[in-house]
Structures are given as C-alpha cells and as structure tokens.
C-alpha cells in the first residue's frame, strides 16, 4: 500500500490519492489480481464521479458474479472528481462473518475479559460511513495511523521523535466514540490489507483492566498481523484506582497495578503493527500519566446542526429504500440548498423542513438522534407506510418527546 497522501509521477506532477474500496463476495474464490483488472476497466469507463460514488450493479459479468460493490471512498462534498487525474489506491477485501470470540477472566467464570473480532468484520460493515462528524475528524484519525506505519517503515527513531500509537477519544456519552473506534479499525484493515495478511480487533472490557488476567497478558503479535486494541473508559478506571489508593480505600498495590497498565502501554512501542484506541466519557480530571502517552486526544462532542441534517438524511434515504417512506422523493443536501440561498420553493420545501428539524434537534446525542426515526414511526405513525412530509411531522413530535424526557430526568436528579 502507498501510505503517502500524494503520488509523484515521472514528470514531477503530484497526483493526490483517491481510495477505491472493492467489496468481494464472501463465496468468491477468484484471484485479487483478476478483480483489480476488472475494476480498473470499470473505472476507466466511468472516470468522472460525483463525490464518494458507489457501484452495486455492473455491466461486467465478472464483477456481477464476484463483487458486492466498488466505492470511491472518503471524498467530501457533491463535487465532480476526475479519477484519471488521481493516483488510484485500490483496496480489495471480503468480510469475515464469524461472531466475536470471548476471552474469560477465569476458566470457570462466564464474565468476558475481552471480545475478539477478525477484520474486516461483517458486524462492523458500514459503521464508518454511518458516523457523521465535523469535517476532518475521521480523516485525521486515518492519517494519524498511516503516519505511524510510514514512520515505522522508514525506521524513524522513536526515542528522538515520539509516538506511542495511542489514540484517546473523549466526550459525553452517546457521541459514537466506541463505534468510531470500531469503524476506524475496520477501515485500517481494508486500507492496509496489502501490507498485513490478517487484522484483528480486541475490545478490552473495563472491569478486566485491574484483574490478574490483565496483568499477566503479554502482547506477542505477528508482524504480519495488524492489531487494534480498544480500551473503553480506561481514563475513568485509572483515575478511580489512583484516587482509591491515595484515599486508602483500596489495597495498597492499586498504584502498582495502575503503573503496570501504563507500562504495558509503553511496551506497545516495540510493536509497529499494534494500535491502541481508548475512549473516555470525561473531559476533565483525565489521568495525566495516561494523557502523556496519547498521541491524539480528540474531543467527540454532540453533533452540530449540519451533522444532524446529514444523519437524518441518511435515515430517511434508508426508509425510502425499504418503502417505509413512500413514494420516494428527492431531498437536497445542505450544499445544494446553499446554492439556492435556502430559498423556499416546491423543490426545496421538504429539505428546508428537514434543516429546521435538524436545528431543533441540537443538543441530542448521536445515539438519541438515530432513534428518532424509529420513535417517530412507532409512536406517531398512522400507517405502515408514510410520505416524507408526514414522516417529518412525526419526527418533530419524537424530538419534542425526547427533549421532554431529558428535562424530566434532569429535574429528578
């Protein structure tokens, strides 16, 4: 894989990379070189695309038989892109359908210490694309990990230029931090499939951080395997353990265990193919010893009005696809509304209603927002199938109900 962001031609012209993700059907046994040849032919015939375009139907019998989709990935905005002016990075993958395996704290206990997935996992398919944040957050995370691999390839001395392969995502609950980690791991397994023969994702449960099991774990990952490890709420666990030890309410070796966790994170630097992803629901009083080890400390807050608009838009498109909203009606993007100066007309009316609903929904978490369409249908749906206009009115009522419930909870505290 070409890790760099740009590719230099022999003539000295810089051609920016465009990533093409090719999802091969699980039952297909064809060689990846054959898939690549047919995909290049497809892209040569359709070299101008609008934004992140995805093909799911093909006029090529080979692609129809063997490929689920071909996607131009991670381009922002509805602008036309000439693929011939870019360096095409083609990533070919198939999904692993296996359920996650569980590691127990003790042989006789059912309590799971960690869950383990082989990547790319069918369970994680589409997570990355479904998460909508302010422009740049997801790209920066991908670029960060790409740079760690690139620096390792060039044998950069990590004692001179420090990086620990540790990412900290922090912010209020319900903003998609854990999902973002899963989506990032999935994305990396696809982007680095030419480099690593296998990829895996290990989610360490917070209750096992200070267990005997955790203190005895030693990483021995194969150099041919990409390993993404997720520690949820690690900051809370470390901070609580330090506070308890200092207050004398925990065993005297609590600090020793905390230091063992931090030492293990330090040892990860010896494994260039291991990435540590961590999350925290607190944004203050973060354990300083841990923060020093995190290269990226990204705040993930509640979605903005524009992000909410795109979240709702993706939900409505899905419901129209499933004929729960019918008939299908064209909804404009914010960019398209902007070109019309947000003026109301027969063409823009429904999209402007959605924009107003998004503004009205500010302050709700991403988790709550994704439930609004379901609640709208469940509580206010007059029939199994509704028009876009009727459904938007039901969503307004569902948003009002969510706000009332939040206010009631706050008053009870």
Automatic annotation (TrEMBL):
<dbReference type="Pfam" id="PF23242">
    <property type="entry name" value="AAA_lid_TRIP13_C"/>
</dbReference>
<feature type="domain" description="AAA+ ATPase">
    <location>
        <begin position="163"/>
        <end position="304"/>
    </location>
</feature>
<dbReference type="InterPro" id="IPR058249">
    <property type="entry name" value="Pch2_C"/>
</dbReference>
<dbReference type="InterPro" id="IPR003959">
    <property type="entry name" value="ATPase_AAA_core"/>
</dbReference>
<dbReference type="GO" id="GO:0051598">
    <property type="term" value="P:meiotic recombination checkpoint signaling"/>
</dbReference>
<dbReference type="GO" id="GO:0016887">
    <property type="term" value="F:ATP hydrolysis activity"/>
</dbReference>
<dbReference type="GO" id="GO:0048477">
    <property type="term" value="P:oogenesis"/>
</dbReference>
<dbReference type="InterPro" id="IPR003960">
    <property type="entry name" value="ATPase_AAA_CS"/>
</dbReference>
<comment type="function">
    <text>Plays a key role in chromosome recombination and chromosome structure development during meiosis. Required at early steps in meiotic recombination that leads to non-crossovers pathways. Also needed for efficient completion of homologous synapsis by influencing crossover distribution along the chromosomes affecting both crossovers and non-crossovers pathways.</text>
</comment>
<protein>
    <recommendedName>
        <fullName>Pachytene checkpoint protein 2 homolog</fullName>
    </recommendedName>
</protein>
<dbReference type="GO" id="GO:0005634">
    <property type="term" value="C:nucleus"/>
</dbReference>
<dbReference type="InterPro" id="IPR027417">
    <property type="entry name" value="P-loop_NTPase"/>
</dbReference>
<comment type="similarity">
    <text>Belongs to the AAA ATPase family. PCH2 subfamily.</text>
</comment>
<keyword id="KW-0539">Nucleus</keyword>
<keyword id="KW-0469">Meiosis</keyword>
<keyword id="KW-0067">ATP-binding</keyword>
<keyword id="KW-0896">Oogenesis</keyword>
<dbReference type="GO" id="GO:0005524">
    <property type="term" value="F:ATP binding"/>
</dbReference>
<keyword id="KW-0221">Differentiation</keyword>
<dbReference type="Pfam" id="PF00004">
    <property type="entry name" value="AAA"/>
</dbReference>
<keyword id="KW-0547">Nucleotide-binding</keyword>
<dbReference type="GO" id="GO:0005694">
    <property type="term" value="C:chromosome"/>
</dbReference>
<dbReference type="InterPro" id="IPR003593">
    <property type="entry name" value="AAA+_ATPase"/>
</dbReference>
<dbReference type="Pfam" id="PF23563">
    <property type="entry name" value="TRIP13_N"/>
</dbReference>
<dbReference type="InterPro" id="IPR044539">
    <property type="entry name" value="Pch2-like"/>
</dbReference>
<dbReference type="GO" id="GO:0007131">
    <property type="term" value="P:reciprocal meiotic recombination"/>
</dbReference>
